[in-house]
Amino acid sequence: MLVGVEGIFYTMAGPALEKLEQTVFFEQSEQQDQVEAFIDDTFPKEWVDEPLTIAVPEMAEDMSARNNADRFIGACALNNEVEFSVPSPEVFSPIESLYDAILLATEGNAEARKMVETNARTDVIERTMKTGHVISVELDVDEAGKIQQFGQTMESVQANSLRLAADTWQMKERTEAEATNTFRIQELHEQGKLEDYSFVVFSRAADNMSKKDMAEAGFFTDTMSCAIQVTSATGNKLTTESAFVSGIKKGNDDRNDKESIIGVAGKLGVDLSGKTATEVLATPILVHNSMLKNGVIDLVEMYDDCSGGTFFGEEKPKLNYIEYLKTCQEREERFQPKVESIVNQLIKEAPSIRTRIAAVEKLSKLSEVAMVQQAIGDSDINPLVFGKTSASYINESKMHILDGNYQEAHHSAMKAIETADSDSCPGGAKSSAESLDGDNGINNSMDDCEFISKVCPKCGEKNVKTKISKGKISGACGCSASMK
Questions:
Q1: CA angle 421, 129, 454 (to 5 degrees)
Q2: Beta-strand pair 472-475/480-482
Q3: Which tens digit of pLDDT belongs to each residue from 218-249?
C-alpha cells in the first residue's frame, strides 16, 4: 500500500493492507497538510512505515555530502592535492588511476589487472552499445568504509574526471554533478540507507549544447541516449547497474527523453518538470528496494511505458525484460575475448605509456580498433557509433564477406579502422598521436581482422572466433572459405 506525501511515498504496514485494496495517490499539486491529515485520520500511526521514495537533495543530511563535494571539487579546480583514503595494504594496493593499475598489473598484481579489465569491459560496452543494454559493475568497501573498485577509491575516479574530462562549462557542470553523487552514495552507504534503498540517477544527453558540440563532447546524437543508473548495497558490496535507453524513438524524430524521465520520476513521486538535463542528473532519488525487485530493468520498463510503448526507448517490438538481461550477459561474454586482448596489449605497452592521460587515450584507441573489428561480425553493434565514414566501410566489409570477396572484405575492414571516430562516454578521452604509438593494438601487423561471429553461417555454431586474412575467412569452429 502506498500513500503519497509531496513526492514521498509511504508504505502502509500490516492491517492497512487489509483495510484498503488499492493504492492512494495524491497529485503533486495537493497541499502537504491535506495529505498528512488524510494519513492521520485514516491510519493508526503504527501502520505507517518508512518512505518508499525520497528526492535526495530534499534530505536534511544531504547538506553534508554537498559540502564535502564542494570542497573536493574546489581542490580539484585549483589543482591542489586531494587526500584519498588509501585502503589497507593487506586488502588492496593503492591505485588512483588506470595508469597506476596498468603499471601494477605488469608486476603481476591480480587486483590491478581486474581493474584494467573492468575499465576495458566498460569502455567497449559504452563505446558500442548506446541503447538496449544493461551493464553491472561491482564495488567494494574497504576497512575504513570507503567505496572503491579494486583499490581505486571513487574519489580518485571523480578527481580524474574533473581534471581530465571537464573541458567545457557544460561538461564541467555535469562532471561536478556526478562527483556530488559519488559523495552522496558514500554518505548514504555509511548511514546504512543503501541496504533498503537504491540510489537512482537519470543521466540524459545534454540539452544546452548544439549537436556539433555534443558530438565533440562524446554524446551519440543519433539516439540521444540516456543512462539510468541504480546503485544498491549488500553488506560491504555495492552494485551499480547502468541501462542505456534511447532518447529518440526512431530516425529523425524529436527527442522525447525529457518527457519520459519526468514521467518515470512522477511515478516515483518526484517532480522533475522544469529541470535541465544537468539538474536532473543532480537530483538522484532513493527508491525502496521493494519497488525495484528486478533492479534497473524495472525502471527501463517504466521508461518505455512513459515513452508510449517503446523497448529501451526505441520503436521496436517489446521483449521480456528479465529474459533480455540474459541477452545482455551473453553479449558481454561474446565481447570478452576483445576485452582480454585490450588488457594484454595495455600491459604489453606499459613501458611506453608515460602519463595518466596517455593510459586513457591508449585504452580508447585499442578499444576502438577491437570493436570496429567486432562490428563486422556482430549485428548487435550499430556501425554508426564509429562515425558515418567508418560505418560505410564496416557495412561494405560485411557485404564482401557475404559475396565471398574476402580480400576486399579485409581491405574495407582496415579502412573502417583507419577512419573510425568513436567515444565510450561523454567527456571521455579521444585517441591522440601519443596513443597511436606502438603497433595499433590488437595484433602486430594488422594482417588479420578478428571478431566473434554471433553464428557461423556454415555450421550454425554460436559465438565463433573468426579471422579474415587476405583472401580467406576461417572460424574456430573449423569452417573456412577462400576467395572465389
A1: 105
A2: antiparallel
A3: 899 999 999 999 999 988 889 999 999 999 99
- The alpha-helical segments, DSSP class H, found in 386-443 are 388-403, 406-419
Sheet with 197-203, side-by-side order of all strands: 53-55, 285-288, 197-203, 226-234, 237-245, 133-141, 147-149, 152-153
Assign 15 a pLDDT band (cuts: 50, 70, 90).
Answer: very low
Instruction: Name, in order, each residue with C-beta under 8 angstroms of 388's C-beta and a sequence gap of 6 or more.
Output: none
Contact 401, 409 (CB under 8 A): yes
What's the CA gap between 42 and 52, in Å, rounded?
19
Q: How far apart are CA 386 and CA 349, in angstroms?
A: 24
- How many Å apart are CA 298 and CA 257, to the nearest integer? 17
Residue 478 burial (10 A CB sphere; 0-12, 13-18, 19+): exposed
Q: Work out the end-to-end distance of the chain between its first and last CA atoms, rounded to an integer number of angstroms.
A: 68
Q: Give pLDDT, residue 277.
A: 97
Residue 339 grid coordinates: 576485452
Question: What's the longest Cα–Cα distance across the chain?
Answer: 83
| DSSP state, residue 253 | P
Tens digit of pLDDT for each residue in 292-346?
Answer: 999 999 999 999 999 999 999 999 999 999 999 999 999 999 999 999 999 999 9
Q: How many CB atoms lie within 10 A of CB 19?
A: 12
Per-residue pLDDT tens digits for 265-283: 999 999 999 999 999 999 9
Query: 158: which 3 cell numbers?
Result: 571523480
Distances (CA, A) of 431 to 70, 107, 110: 31, 26, 27
Three-point CA angle 263, 265, 269, nearest 5°: 110
Residues in CB range of 50: below 8 A, 6 or more apart: 10, 11, 196, 288
Distance (Å) of CA 368 to CA 385, 387, 458: 10, 11, 29
Give dist(CA 180, CA 195) in Å, integer. 20
Residue 86 is given by DSSP the state P
Residue 58 has phi, psi (to 5 degrees) of: -90, -5
Question: Which one, of 407, 343, 382, 396, lies nearest residue 133 by Cα?
Answer: 382
9-23, 174-188, 455-469 — most confident range: 174-188
Gap between the Cα atoms of 368 and 429, Å rounded: 12
Distance between CA atoms of residues 349 and 105, nearest Å: 12
The angle subtended at Cα 77 by Cα 74 and Cα 81, nearest 5°, is: 80
